[in-house]
Amino acid sequence: MLEYVDSLEEFEHAKNICNRLVEIDRTVPAMVFKTNFDYYYFAEYNMLFTLRGPYWEHVLMLARKPNIGQIVFMVLDPDPESYYSWCNRYGTVLTDPKAEKEDILEILSVSPKEGTGDAMCFIASRFVVFSEYSLNWCLWADRYYEVAILAINDCSTQQAIEDTLNNWWYSAEQAIDRLPPLPFFVKPIPEHIRKEFLANYGD
Questions:
Q1: Are 15 and 123 in contact (CB under 8 A)?
Q2: What is the pTM of this model?
Q3: How remote is the C-alpha of 170 from its chain's centroid?
Q4: Is the C-alpha dihedral spanning 180, 182, 184, 185 positive or negative?
Q5: Cα angle for residues 124, 128, 130 (degrees, 5° grid)
Q6: Are 127 and 73 in contact (CB under 8 A)?
Q7: pLDDT tens string for the chain (203 positions)?
């Protein structure tokens, strides 16, 4: 089950959690998370929209922990409230944590209004995924910088991710070299950017 949020109360609830998790207007190399997390893992942004890789399986492992509610998908850019003026829906989707990877890809490709092309995979420059009642994990993704960051505190999921490191997920040290954000264009990454990125996300 998936649904775009049309209730102001539900939207404000999700927005309040989001505001506790991330800095809405920040992007890399700055620290985008407000909550302190133990582990950060990185992926290529576009890989989130394919069936390849274990990305959504790991997100679902986190979302299926007891008593953490539905999974929230919220667009940060453009403003999620901007959707409401024309389709009576917010740029926020809720789904059951029992969803499968295929359901997640459907969520990202369904538009809030029938017959339009404003699904998250098309319109979102930046979005986040988190659990309704948890501050223990968050997926943050930025199309412009071609990067997604999964921030977690859960040790069992951390071990599952570590088993796929180098092939699917990257550490901060690997990501800064292998996934250079598009606006920088050049390799190697300028040293001041590298230092800030690793200071925020490195071991």
A1: no
A2: 0.94
A3: 15
A4: positive
A5: 150
A6: yes
A7: 678 899 999 999 999 999 999 999 999 999 999 999 999 999 999 999 999 999 999 999 999 998 889 999 999 999 998 888 878 889 999 999 999 999 999 988 888 777 677 888 888 999 999 999 999 999 999 998 899 999 999 999 999 999 999 999 999 999 988 876 656 556 777 888 889 999 999 98
